[in-house]
Amino acid sequence: KENAILEWRDLLGPTSSHRARETHPESLRAIYGTDDQRNAVHGSDSQKGAEREIRFFFPDAVVEPISSGDQATDYLVKNVMPVLTKRIRRTLQKLKPEDPLSWIAEWLLANNPNKPQVEEPVMA
User: Fold this and answer.
1) How far apart are alpha carbons 105 and 109 in whole angstroms?
2) Is 18 a catalytic site residue?
């Protein structure tokens, strides 16, 4: 996403929870932070900072350079779009859903490998 770090940090609000409540009352730190040290969430200040922090907190993680701009667009157009387009076309021709766009959206939500796994509480 373009400007992802900037937008994320804007959603977080100022580092100080007290200042966040005054200047950015809808920010995550204003809502969930308790003070300047326990400010609820963290956001790296740059891509390099994020890579450094990921390596520190998750030493076994593989952090590859993240493509951006034209390089990312070229990769997606060349390698991802043809595969997705072909597969989506075949699936839609086979299933013929009444509302193809809604069907795709629901399928993506249901098959998101990164969606949170929430266990329902057991009622006693």
Assistant:
1) 6
2) no
